[in-house]
Amino acid sequence: MTTTQLWIAGIGTLAIYSFLIKENPVYRFFEFLLVGAGSAHLIVNTYHNYLRPTVANTIIRDGNYSMIIPICLGLLMYTRFIPGQGHISRLPMAFWLGIGSGYLLAYNPGPFIGQLTASFWKPNSVNNIISAVLLLSTLLYFIFTVGPQSRGWKAYSIVSKVGRTGIMVALGAAFGSTVMARLSNLLGRVQFLLIDWLKIAQ
Amino acid sequence: MGFFDWMQKIDRRWLYLLVFMSVAIPVVKPMGLPISIGKETEGFFAAIDALNPGDVMILTPEYGAAQVPEVGSMTTSAFRQAMNKGVRVLIFGVWPDGQGPTIAQGACEAISDELGKTYGVDWVNLGYKPGLDVTLKKMVDDVWEAAVGVDIKGNALESLPMMQDVRKAADCKLVANINIHGFGLEKTMAFIGIPTGMTVIGGNGAAGITEVIPYFRSGQLQGLLMGMRGAAEYEILVQKPGRAVVGMDAQSAAHVTIIIFVILANIGYLLEKRTKAAKAAGR
Questions:
Q1: Residues A94 and A134 both lie in one domain
Q2: Which tens digits make up the pLDDT trace of A30-48?
Q3: Cβ B98–A190 below 8 Å, yes or no?
Q4: pTM score
Q5: CA-CA to A160 of 20 to 30 Å: which in B50, B80, B212, B229?
Q6: Of B151, B227, B177, which Cα lies nearest the Cα of B60?
Q7: Contact A178 B206 (CB under 8 A)
């Protein structure tokens, strides 16, 4: 990064963190700047890397005119800005949902089936036994069709509580991991401020 | 007012400052805490190491600028390992923020220059290609068509020697997805790994680890880098320690600080609860 870029990034970092002290106009300005720059990056990236070559290469050079159909469908999305014609935008949306559902149904079972077969553990270690118990008890916890009378069964209640404990452990682990991820982000900024910008560390 | 009463009422900005200091001090004055290598990281390293010179691997950096400190070095370390091994690398991204391949380009160019490699011959970056599932599926059928015939620099794929050997994803031997969410790794497995039978390895931000670690345990993933810790382990394995290794001291110090806060807060909460119960009983 050039010196100017370093200073913009450094001041921007401090401005964003100033929110921790108090909401302020400088923070607000840099927040909008970040959102604007991110959106602009995506638009420019998509245009140069996909839209322009699609029109120039695929349609005009290669004569693949069928590509005009999805472009027209995409443009129909903007009819929601035309008073009284907004319903037309549901056509491409319906097409999109159909494609998405089809892909999910076709491809998502792959990883899931792998997980299912991998859950048939041999009871030859403590970890495997704990995993099997938690898997079954968690599944049981989510059986909502069991009637209120059955819910009164002591055995069901105990297994269900074990399942709930398993869920809480999993959520705790997920939360801990998230805290770790956020600290990594903070660390990245601190390294930038102290090493790259202020050069008071190596 | 006792210590815990005072703690309950403390301005949270003091806590922010303490967390900041616990991160900043080890950055200025590293402690050099030891880092052991986990089997997940070893699996990631071994999967690339098992490739032969001339093979092509896919590297998909799917993250934005904010996540670079955590997962950025996973991409550069994987690229470095591949280049050192003579493995060719095809980079692209389909994740909607579209920043990953652009961010990776600069870092990979620096490594490529350092190791005397040539863009277009030893590696190609196709850049961000929108479409997510549809584009991933298209990569399996026809990489050139999915990339609409151009790389990140706007070069025609016909002009890049490496791309003559890569017409579909199955021409590659391995796919490494570096992501911040578990979601991206699942999609890579579903749309590229399973249909082609290709080896899949992944690097994930810590926030998504609990989602993807079952895939490593089940053997669906051959290797997994878990958060900045995984990145640091991998930097050690590729013998190029960087920011992730340096950052481990700071991360450990910050974790200890937060754990102390959590313990103190819980003690304070329990004491407050007991005091209220005692007052209620006294009435």
A1: no
A2: 999 999 998 999 999 999 9
A3: no
A4: 0.90
A5: B212
A6: B177
A7: yes
